[in-house]
Amino acid sequence: MMTFRAIQISRYASRSLFLSTHAVGSAFPHAKFRLSAVPGAVFHQGGSRSFASHAPKASEILSAVYRVRLRIAQWVWYGNLLFTKLKPILLSNSGASLIGLTLGTGSNLIYASYVNCKREQGLQSALALGSVPDVEGGRVLAERKEIKEALTTLLQPASDHSQYGMVIGSQGTGKTTLVRQVAHNHAGILYVNIQPSGVTEQEFAETVAKALHFFPRSRVWFNIVLSQLGIVTHDVEDKRKYLVQVFDEFTRQAKIYRQKTNRPPVLVLDNVNRLAAGNPGLLNILQDIAKDAADDGIFITVFVASEGQAPLQILGRSAQSRLGRVIVVKDLTKEEALRYLCHQHGKHRDIAEAVYDFTGGRIAYLKSALTQLNSGIPVLGIRQQFLDTGRDVFTKAKCMPDDEFKLVAIPLARKMLLAGAISREDFEEGAGSQTTAKRLLAVNIFTLSPYSELVVFDSKPIQLVAQEVVGNAAQRRRSWLWLW
Ligand SMILES: Nc1ncnc2c1ncn2[C@@H]1O[C@H](COP(=O)(O)OP(=O)(O)OP(=O)(O)O)[C@@H](O)[C@H]1O
Ligand SMILES: [Mg+2]
Asked: Which residues form the AAA+ ATPase domain (predicted)?
């Protein structure tokens, strides 16, 4: 019987829990919160067996409720006491200032923490799935399966990949569209499109910052004051160049991404030819950053450039030793172009062949011709427009200094029409000097393909106009000889 009672006792709530005097100061009016205030609380250590089997649960609940009430009453009481004591101080001028300062600092602290938390979320989401903008929807694009597969491998490097890459091709061959189409479907890619008006360090840094969702950390006001006074705080203002700040942040995010996925993220820099033309020094810096990041396995850079100065500059530096895969985006083959025009856009084969004849499978031209066909312009009229644009290029080139066009460009064009392409060496020899060769390449009649080191006509319309120009020159020479 004694054993039974001992077990029952242990199941009842302890009296001391109801008193709680250990936590309350002596001034607290305990009399108001006596045990008798607990409704139905009866502390029997014996009693009937039926009470022993049901009461413990009810008693425990009541005791818990009572304890909560007691705590609330204590807080209210102490609150009142504090308010009464502090009231005169708070109503004084210095008291009000203190309250203002405390509230101001507190809200500033909460706001800064909130903004910085949002900032971190934004930064991490920049490398998340689908952060690369897709090509505009609603268009039927030419299928380019093979090159898309090659790009997928380049944009999804293995964990031990340690080389940066390059995507090159003549203007309008569809590099940007392809890169965005592929990158849009994969995580871990930061796509930066260099704007024509964004080639200074600051402008470029702003473009990267936008893609990365980067903005400087929000700081608490006393950090700002202390750093203004020259007193170092744990959160000093970042006074380094904006480009360095942005790349440091990208490096930090790249490390986080790498840790999470065991794969290096990829930084795609599109239109680097704009840097080669407007700020070649910055392109050199970016190539060095790309080399170091690839060496350390932090991130992989992919440079996207039109053929011309940019790939030549990249290939001409020692940092090119870490250049890995180079993907050349070429014009569509005749078969691909006809499939695009006939099967994907329902054009008659004769029309499609005529369009291919003056566009040479350059996707930008095919798309433009298609738009004009759809608006009712006959194919001969479109051809005429393309040739007129090509003639404009030659007209500008005719203004070249020292009569370079007549003396050098026409013989080179003649040679190219016969051979299809000429080597870089032959081109420079025909031009007479490297400077003239450079000037000729800059007038957009000829293009040097950096990988094959072959010089070709810039596009099919240019080739067609070159035929005209070379033919006219030969005709004039013949007439002149005849007269003589
Ligand atoms: N696969 C495709 N199908 C249909 N149209 C395309 C395709 N790829 C590109 N285009 C169109 O061709 C034009 C040129 O494409 P894009 O800008 O991608 O070429 P690019 O090589 O990046 O040009 P640039 O050398 O000037 O940077 C654009 O109008 C684009 O919409
Ligand atoms: Mg482009």
From this structure: 161-333
* End-to-end C-alpha distance for the chain, whole angstroms: 144
Residue for token pair 């006509």: 457
**Domain ranges in the chain with CATH number 3.40.50.300:** 145-328
Alpha helices in 92-195 (DSSP H): 93-125, 145-155, 175-183
Assigned architecture for domain 378-483: Orthogonal Bundle (1.10)
Over residues 308-341, the pLDDT tens digits come to 788 888 888 877 788 888 999 999 999 999 999 9
Closest by CA position to 161, among listed 251, 293, 294, 262: 294
Q: How many CB atoms lie within 10 A of CB 86?
A: 12
Task: Check residue 17 and give its pLDDT.
Answer: 42
Complete DSSP assignment for 203-270: HHHHHHHHHHT--PPP--HHHHHHHHTT---TT----S-HHHHHHHHHHHHHHHHHHHHSS--EEEEE
**In this predicted model, what pLDDT tens digit does every residue of 6-39 receive, in sequence order?**
444 444 444 444 444 444 445 666 666 555 555 5
Contacts 24+ apart (CB under 8 A), 143-149: 143/336, 143/339, 143/340, 143/344, 144/174, 144/178, 144/332, 144/336, 147/178, 147/327, 147/329, 148/178, 148/181, 148/182
Neighbours of 371 (CB within 10 A): 11
Q: Is 306 in the pocket of ligand 1 (CB under 6 A)?
A: yes
CATH 3.40.50.12780 fits 145-328, yes or no: no
Counting atoms of ligand 1 from 1, which one is nearest the CA of 306?
25
Ligand in nearest proximity to the CA of 307: 1
β-pair type (454-457, 422-423): antiparallel
Q: Is 127 exposed, middle or buried (0-12, 13-18, 19+ CB in 10 A)?
A: buried
